[in-house]
Amino acid sequence: MTGGSSYVITLPKDWVESVHIKKNDPLGVIVQPDGTLLITKNTTGDQIQRIKNLEITSDIDPDFFLRNLIGIYIAGYNAIHITTKDRVTGPVRMKLREFSNMVIGPEFVEETESSVLIKDLLNPLEMPIQNSLKRMFVIVRGMHTDAIEGFIAHNSDLISDVIERDNDVDRLFWLVARQTNMILHNVHLSKKMNVNISEMLPHFQVARIIERVGDHSVRIAKNAGKISTSIIPDEINDQIRSASEGALTAFEKSIESFFTHDLKKANKTIEYMHQMEETYSLINTKILSLPVNLAVSVRNITDSIRRSGEYSADIAENVINYEMMRENNSI
């Protein structure tokens, strides 16, 4: 203790040397939610610039290269510097353009015959994670509704549009995953975005579940496309529409409970999905009366409806788990 109101903290030498701290360098001390202290060299709160250097060979598989780019983006790097000993090949440049269209933020800033520099120009503060989740929910809810409508009305244009919209959901999910990793690397960013580190995992988990519901909407659309010229009995269509409305109700209520921290609504959503099991059993029994070529696709559609509802129950369970982490709550 030095004086009456301050203390001297001795820092480990290995850590000081690893982060290149010198004599008289200022350090920030941040109190964490659990009472522990975080010591950081970043006293200004500026975003940490992380650059990923990626050296590739001329014979690299283009799809493998694209997957690496997406992985780097999700990891939270601010810039990607791609180099090759030869010239950048045509297929690689095509994947670079595809990558730029698939994600939010990165743009080409420098390009030569043997190198490309991509930088993220998006300010994370301009895309709050809560807004991304709400946008994902709106898109996926519309995808599911239109996939069922396209199936019942034999509307091939609507079916194709559902499949295309899945790209928008992926872009938002990758952005949420990216922001999660960025916050884990920079505690100052979590304060600026008004999201505690402990809150990031539930948000990421819910985003992942919403993305999976979107995948099932695509699955419904693709199976609907396979039998778009076939006639399905009205009774089965009505039951499928009813099951779909039930799954969407659960989806909407689970998202509402997440953003309003409503434990009772989350619990009712879980119980509601248990009650829906009988509806799915009745539909599957009716499907057995269809010709085999129709029964397989229709069963895939009803299975995706059921899985969408079950994912909604998973969101509701996440709400309960998440709320139990908070100090002040009532049931």
Model description:
By secondary structure, the chain is an alpha+beta fold. It has 2 domains: 51-122, 2-Layer Sandwich (Ribosomal Protein S8, Chain: A, domain 1), CATH 3.30.1370; 125-325, Methane Monooxygenase Hydroxylase, Chain G, domain 1, CATH 1.20.58.220. It is 63% helix and 10% strand. It has a 4-stranded mixed sheet with strand order 3-4-6-5, covered by helices on one side. The chain has a two-stranded antiparallel sheet with strand order 1-2. Helix 4 (129-153) packs antiparallel against helix 5 (156-185) and helix 10 packs antiparallel against helix 11.
| Number of separate strands | 6
Give the biggest sheet.
Answer: 4 strands, mixed
Query: Could you state the CATH homologous superfamily of the largest domain?
Result: Phosphate transport system protein phou homolog 2, domain 2
How many structural domains does the protein architecture include?
Answer: 2
Q: Going across the major beta sheet, what is the strand order?
A: 3-4-6-5
The CATH topology of the largest domain turns out to be Methane Monooxygenase Hydroxylase, Chain G, domain 1
Tell me what portion of residues adopts beta-strand conformation. 5-15%
Cα distance, first to last residue?
45 Å
| SSE topology string | HEEEHEHEEHHHHHHHH
Q: Determine the number of helices (DSSP H or I, runs of at least 4 residues).
A: 11
CATH architecture of the largest domain: Up-down Bundle
Sum up the overall morphology in one term: flat
Q: Mean pLDDT, nearest integer?
A: 88
Q: List low-confidence stretches.
A: none
Radius of gyration: 25 Å
Share of residues in helices? 55-70%
- Which structural category fits the helices and strands? alpha+beta
CATH hierarchy, class of the largest domain: Mainly Alpha
